[in-house]
Design brief:
Elements (H helix, E strand, L loop, with lengths): L16 H8 L1 H7 L5 H7 L4 H4 L1 H24 L1 H21 L3 H29 L2 H30 L5 H21 L14 H13 L4 H28 L4 H28 L2 H25 L5 H26 L6 H25 L6 H29 L2
Length: 406
């Protein structure tokens, strides 16, 4: 999947942001559109609901592992061709999901679908890094993240509406069509962004070294730790949110869905505001402000779940503050994390995503294990994320001070 467009490299020409946004949203669409269909999938495949829920876990496992592969491959073979192959695989496996005859087969196909969906997720951020640096990269990523946050607002509602008219298998058919559309648009509008002289085939040791450098490089480590903190906080919310809102505060499933939509709306609005703030303030100023908001929301989450847990409103307020910081932090911390890696951006972006999911998965598992039927476990999870965020902020300030003193 190469062509004349693959030879045209331009750091001055930014790929269409709308296309990059669609690519980034691939994973969110694949997860969120299927959530309302889990009971129908269980009935249709004559499987327990717990077994049907594996289709989400399998996808997430593939999404985490696949980022390393696609990032490594794109540093060797270029962005455009690798992205097209990933989208082709995503479309094919989405079709296979729609045709699955039992829950185990569906879970296996979802694992491969997640592996393929990792391609557009990691490469959309990598392409931005190829074309832009620092402040400009953060502004472009802010626009991309608006669509990424918008997707969870509409995908579950869209899936629910679609289920009223068609079979659950059509949801995976929709994913397949979406993948084909992204593939066509990529072929038509996306030029190669990594020139031949910058391509490298890296060994496993090289990949591991880049993964370590994300934490040791002074320009990237604060951003990496901030992204891990964000993902840990979000993982706690995703793991415990349904149980706490419905079992502790008496929300219905529909009310939780609307709360999920509202939280995603807060993230989207903050991400949209981020691009405007970056036109007036430096990336470090926005990073610091976002970190303080996330930390405040995390500590507030602990306080309200310990002492003011008779109502869901204080907890929702704490989550809102945390998610405002989340929306501001993702573009700035991603740009800071990748600024030092240049042609290694594919592997660096992949390792960044892998680190996030590794830490967040372990963190949310521990937080979920501590759930005692109250909202306290979510408070612990948010507070821990707030502590990590303050550590990232302190690391960033110390690095900047050290550079000024040189």
């Amino acid at each position: 999947m190469t062509g004349p467009a693959a030879a045209r490299i331009s750091r001055q020409t930014v790929p269409p942001v709308a296309l990059l946004s669609m690519l980034t949203a691939t994973s969110a669409i694949s997860i969120d559109i299927a959530l309302p269909a889990l009971p129908a999938i269980a009935r249709g495949l004559a499987a327990p609901l717990s077994t049907a829920q594996l289709v989400t876990g399998a996808f997430l496992a593939g999404l985490g592992a696949g980022q390393i592969f696609w990032g490594w491959l794109s540093d060797w073979r270029g962005r455009r061709s690798v992205l097209l192959w990933a989208l082709l695989g995503y479309s094919i496996t989405s079709t296979l999901c729609a045709l699955a005859s039992d829950a185990e087969m569906l879970a296996a196909y979802r694992l491969i679908q997640g592996l393929c969906a990792a391609g557009p997720v990691v490469l959309s951020r990598t392409i931005v890094r190829d074309c832009l640096d620092g402040q400009e990269a953060a502004r472009a990523l802010a626009v991309v993240m608006v669509v990424f946050f918008f997707t969870p607002m509409v995908a579950p509602q869209f899936g629910t509406v679609l289920l009223n008219f068609v079979h659950w298998r059509a949801l995976f058919g929709f994913c397949s069509v979406f993948g084909v559309l992204c593939m066509i648009l990529t072929w038509r509008f996306l030029n190669e962004t990594l020139s031949l002289d910058k391509r490298l085939r890296r060994s496993g040791a090289d990949i591991a070294r880049i993964g370590v450098q994300l934490f040791t490089n002074p320009d990237s480590r604060a951003g990496v730790l901030a992204l891990i903190a964000l993902t840990c906080g979000l993982g706690s919310y995703l793991a415990l949110g349904p149980a706490i809102t419905q079992n502790v505060y008496g929300f219905s499933a529909a009310q939780y869905a609307w709360l999920f939509t509202a939280i995603a709306g807060v993230q989207m609005a903050a991400s949209y505001a981020c691009q405007a703030l970056l036109r007036r303030f430096s990336i470090d100023v926005v990073f610091k402000s976002a970190a303080l908001l996330c930390a405040a929301g995390g500590f507030m989450g602990l306080i309200v779940t310990q002492f003011f847990n008779q109502s869901a409103i204080p907890l929702i307020g704490a989550m809102t503050i945390f998610m405002i910081g989340f929306g501001l932090m993702v573009p700035t911390s991603t740009a800071k994390s990748l600024s030092a890696f240049g042609p290694m951006a594919g592997t660096a972006t992949a390792m960044l995503g892998a680190w996030q999911w590794l830490f967040a998965g372990s963190y949310s598992a521990v937080i979920g294990w501590s759930y005692d039927g109250s909202a306290k476990a979510l408070g612990y999870g948010l507070c821990g994320a707030g502590v990590l965020m303050l550590a990232a902020l302190a690391l960033g300030v110390r690095t900047k001070t050290a550079l000024l003193n040189k």
